[in-house]
Write the structure tokens for this entry.
Amino acid sequence: MEQKNLLMAIVLSVAIMLGWQFYIEQTTPPPSDKTAEQTGSPVAPGNSAGGSTGSALTPPAPGTPDQATKLPSQLIEQVNRQAAQALPRVKIISPRVTGSLSLVGARFDDLTLEDYRESIEPDSEKVTLLKPFGTDNAYYAYYGWVSTDTQVPPQDARWTADREELGPGSPVTLSWTNKDGVVFQQIIALDEHYMFTVQQRVTNGSNKAANVFPFGQVVRRGTPDVLDFYILHEGLLGVFNGVLREVDYDDLQDSDTKVIANEKSTGGWIGITDKYWLAALIPDQNTAADSRFSDAVRSGVDHYQVDFRGAKMAVEAGAQNTVTNRLFAGAKEAKRIVEYRDNLNISRFDLAIDWGWFEWLTKPIFFVLVYFTDFLGNMGLAILLLTVIIKLIFFPLANKSYRAMAKMKALQPEMLKIRERFGEDRMRMNQEMMALYKKEKANPASGCLPILPQIPVFFALYKVVFVTIELRHAPFYGWIQDLSAADPLTFVNLFGLIPWTPPEFAVIGIWPIIMGATMYFQQKLNPPPPDPMQAKIFMILPFVFTIMLARFPSGLVIYWAWNNLLSILQQYVIMRQAGVPIGGGRVQPKS
């Protein structure tokens, strides 16, 4: 009865899991902005439109024009975007990013990634990272100064530029002068990829000293759609004194002060990350900076902000002072991130990619995959080759395990005799079993040995496939055009022959079926448990895993299926050498 209850519990657990997934998909509304109006802001007020002095302690709070109108939201967005684009701008033209820099506020608020598209369709839209200030999903960065004794550029300051285009090898200088003759300049340069260098220069043309604090901000209006998956962080993050700090959007929403992590650090960075994209402020790595995460709710919409305030710039009359900061805005390409970390000495910039708990294993696996891909020309082939390497590494351990399982299978007739003889006396039966194991020097637990060290390898590879942009839209062969996505074909609609899109929980692709089949045949090679009910439970596990892994990234499923095939081959050879019958049928005791 207990065994039947166990089997029923497993079946019901799978049914509940699938049912809950279907219920969530059908009933969860899409994310939306808060509708409850909240007033006040935890962030100290910044400079006014007239350019008066701001707080020396904090950069200005984010803001956006209220849109109290009854026009359709799409029309409002279009009008706001056109209005933002109509402002004076400096074009950004480079091989990898395009867009523009607003001369009103000197904001980085229009940036498109030329190498990435929203989907695998060749005509899909390119990924837009930064979006203009004033639009519904505004996402922008800017640099400025705060001071208690000197007029600094306000948030809506109109800057002048010395050229119309910004690109690699063509920096642009923005200038603004206050009423006392203090000239504020931002000399902005862009490399061949995603790194902007911003030199904040102050030239004091007045007759008194100017004390200013440089700052940088990244502001995001509205809560973006996130996967909300426990192995991936999407939200605000930064490295302070060599330690990574991650803050979710709901952490700020639930915070009483709406401000988290007032950190003081020499070196490091702070930013907002999506799964594949990042906008990060990188202060001067040799001076101390105060950084924080905050959320200001305006007209019912969250405005998430990361910012830093650098050390005081004391500029005597007639003198000049410059500080160099940086802005990363682009794709989280691992090799590029590591190059920036090493070449620019950015403290732990590699942690912009969520490597997970097994970072010591995830990163080597990733870079080996990239190396194999450069050699083979296909990421899927690289996964297959990596699987072979992993099997070779664990070959001695696996061989020992499979030989032990072959011995266990050879002992099946004797084990059946003991079971038939002492079936009613479990204690005596277990004693006889242990005596048999000791006599034949067999270890029933040895079959688990090769599995244990492969568990962190599996999770590390899962992390690589799930979070690294190098796997995004990486094709294999045939119908697999994105190794980071689930197998799109399913037998439910006859692999696309029936014009019907089934619910996601029912989509079981070809590769998950191959994986389940290989797992089943591998089970048939193993010695069945003495208990018939346990044997039945083990035999349904391949079907359970097929359903569970159906929506996993296809790259991971391909790895598992190929690993199973190699294990079947290895186990088959060893069992033949040991003279053990091949097959999963129960061995009958000799009379």
